[in-house]
Design brief:
Layout: H1 2-10, H2 13-19, H3 22-36, H4 66-80, H5 84-97, H6 101-113, H7 117-130, H8 135-148, H9 151-163, H10 170-179, H11 184-195, H12 206-219, H13 223-236, H14 241-253, H15 257-270, H16 275-287, H17 291-304, H18 309-321, H19 325-332, H20 343-355, H21 359-367, H22 375-388, H23 392-405, H24 410-423, H25 427-440, H26 445-457, H27 461-474, H28 479-492, H29 498-511, H30 516-528, H31 532-545, H32 549-561, H33 565-578, H34 583-591
Helix pairs in contact: 3-4, 4-5, 5-6, 5-7, 6-7, 7-8, 8-9, 9-11, 10-12, 11-12, 12-13, 12-14, 13-14, 14-15, 14-16, 15-16, 16-17, 16-18, 18-19, 18-20, 19-20, 20-21, 20-22, 21-22, 22-23, 22-24, 23-24, 24-25, 26-27, 27-28, 28-29, 28-30, 29-30, 30-31, 31-32, 32-33, 32-34
């Protein structure tokens, strides 16, 4: 038995992990089993053991104890047989027990082999805790946060990578944030806070953070600050292709076409295969009215890229968006008659033919768009085209036929026809259509929700509530329905139903905690219940993500109730500068004229 004490007391964690392995641990296990089955007194000179001589031995303070070694051996064997979940959990348990980053690292990679999302995140968190300067766990956690829509946490992880000397991919993050309508104001503030740190400019990948900040500021309309930051990046890394892409895009936004052209040319010289530069350069030529030059360049680009189909489509769309259908049509014609013509080609040809006034042929093109991302936009465009030609009956017949042909899009096509009838001031026909289709499909949540909103607009609160509760019968966690019903009851300010409304909004928040509309409802509910400080917290979060006039009106009203009139005026002024039409703000100012900016 003394062999067990010696073996376990001297086996270091590093030797188990570095020398790994299955062979060394299996040998150790065999030695243990041999010890545990040692001969009795009649087989050897030591005599029988009446008690465990290690009962009062001091605890092991270095190396592995029996439980630790057993757990590691189990994890290693599980990994060898492909049970990555068990292997990851075993290594993670060991990493919780021992202050050894390598254990958490092995747990993370085993979880990645097994595609176990929860274990990957848990293991990466422990890995980062044990090795704060390690880049990989922060990168994994940043990706997980982004998948959940937690933009600020993902940004925090990326900035941690930068501060540790790594590359946080902030520019790519900023591009995604702009495209996905992330909370750009909060993101910009966090980036600025980082750049304001004394040592920020000395970090290795400082220019990546500056460029990301410029992209966010440009999206927020702060073009002067964005330009200054781009000039700063140019001084640091003039060979950075992403810099010239941002400079070209910003030049377009500010109307400086020559600068956009020059930036696109510089970027194309650095990244000749980047289609974005090709499109920007063609766009600059088109806007400078150099159509012939643009077409020559387009042909040369297509030839150099082997007639790339995606590039051809993108260029055709660019010409069409810039108001030049003829070159767009010329680019698309070679695709017709080929197998597997992309849907977008038919969609663009429909738009071109429509622009030429050939409505019936345009309709044929739109109908050739098969199921996929372009299916509904093509039907909506075709129906709108017929309505504008005063052919409402043809539009309705077209949509009915499409419903029979494409059951997958039945609900969306019904909703499209309802919207079409509303636009044609045929609201009674629209209501009849909606009632008829709900009778046929009484559990269609989308149609029920649409009717609920129409009833709310008409002042039929009882009808609206009935439809929303029917949605919740079949889909109890429908955040949209929960929030709509809860907010409506809160806004009506019926004292005997405020608690019920609050419970509905809480359920909406549980189902969709990042939805700014739900955050706004929660804040407004707290306001109605008299809890102003709590209301303010929720409304500030909602406004950071969704700075529209409804949330602004709620936030300003709570600020006014707290005696913070000047802050309320600033919120209202911000909205009133962005749009000439703001009825909800006007209603608030009628109640509180002192808040007029």
């Amino acid at each position: 038995m003394r062999l067990r004490s010696t073996l376990l007391g001297t086996t270091s964690m590093g030797s188990i992990l570095r020398g790994s392995t299955l062979l060394s641990m299996t040998a150790a296990a065999l030695m243990l089993s041999a010890c545990q089955s040692a001969p009795s007194s009649q087989d050897g000179p030591l005599g029988p053991w009446t008690d465990d001589p290690m009962r009062n031995a001091p605890p092991i303070t270095r190396g592995l104890d029996a439980a630790g070694l057993s757990a590691l051996l189990g994890a290693e064997l599980a990994g060898q047989r492909g049970d990555y979940r068990y292997a990851s959990q075993g290594y993670l348990d060991a990493a919780q027990r021992y202050q050894e980053p390598a254990l958490a690292e092995r747990a993370t990679f085993a979880a990645r082999f097994g595609n176990e999302a929860a274990l990957i995140e848990a293991s990466a968190l422990r890995w980062r805790e044990l090795a704060p300067q390690a880049e990989t766990p922060n990168r994994l956690l940043a990706a997980f946060s982004l998948q959940r829509g937690d933009w600020l946490d993902s940004l925090t992880q990326r900035l941690s990578i930068v501060e540790a000397g790594g590359h946080g991919d902030l520019t790519a993050f900023a591009e995604i944030a702009v495209a996905e309508n992330a909370p750009l104001t909060l993101i910009a503030q966090q980036l600025r806070d980082h750049l304001a740190q004394p040592n920020a400019a000395q970090l290795e990948h400082h220019s990546d953070v500056v460029l990301a900040t410029a992209l966010i500021e440009a999206a927020l309309g702060d073009t002067a600050s964005a330009q200054q930051r781009l000039d700063q990046v140019e001084a640091l890394e003039p060979e950075l292709a992403a810099l010239w892409l941002a400079k070209a895009q910003l030049a377009f936004e500010t109307g400086n076409l020559k600068a956009a052209q020059q930036a696109a040319e510089q970027g194309l010289s650095l990244a000749p295969d980047d289609v974005r530069f090709i499109l920007l350069l063609a766009q600059a030529e088109i806007r400078l009215s150099n159509i012939s030059a643009a077409e020559v360049q387009t042909d040369a680009l297509l030839e150099s890229h082997g007639g790339n189909q995606e590039l051809r489509l993108a260029l055709a769309q660019l010409y069409l968006e810039e108001g030049h259908p003829a070159p767009a049509q010329r680019l698309l014609q070679p695709l017709i008659g080929q197998p597997d013509v992309p849907n977008v080609a038919y969609y663009l040809l429909g738009a071109i033919t429509q622009a030429q006034g050939d409505i019936d042929n345009a309709l044929l093109y739109y109908r050739q768009v098969s199921e996929g991302d372009e299916f509904m936009p093509a039907r909506a465009t075709a129906a709108q085209m017929l309505l504008e030609e005063d052919r409402l009956l043809d539009a309705r017949a077209f949509l009915r036929i499409e419903r029979m042909r494409s059951e997958r899009y039945f609900t969306e096509l019904v909703m499209l026809e309802v919207q079409l009838l509303d636009e044609a001031n045929q609201r009674e026909d629209a209501a009849a259509l909606l009632d008829r289709e709900i009778t046929r499909t009484p559990d269609d949540e989308a149609l029920l929700y649409m009717r609920a909103m129409r009833r709310w607009e008409a002042g039929d609160i009882t009808g609206m509530e009935n439809d929303l509760r029917q949605v919740l019968v079949t889909e109890p966690k429908n955040a949209e329905a929960l929030n709509a019903l809860g907010y409506t009851l809160v806004d009506l300010n019926l004292p005997d139903r405020l608690e019920e409304a609050f419970a509905l909004i809480e359920r909406a928040y549980e189902a969709d905690p990042s939805n700014p509309a739900v955050l706004d409802s929660m804040g407004w509910a707290y306001y109605r219940l008299g809890n102003l400080e709590e209301a303010l917290s929720w409304l500030e979060s909602a406004y950071a993500q969704l700075p529209d006039q409804e949330v602004a009106a709620h936030l300003a009203e709570v600020l006014q109730a707290l005696g913070r009139d000047e802050e309320a005026r600033r919120v209202l002024q911000h909205i009133m500068q962005r749009t000439d039409r703001h009825p909800l703000i006007d209603q608030l100012l009628e109640r509180h004229p002192a808040l007029t900016p």
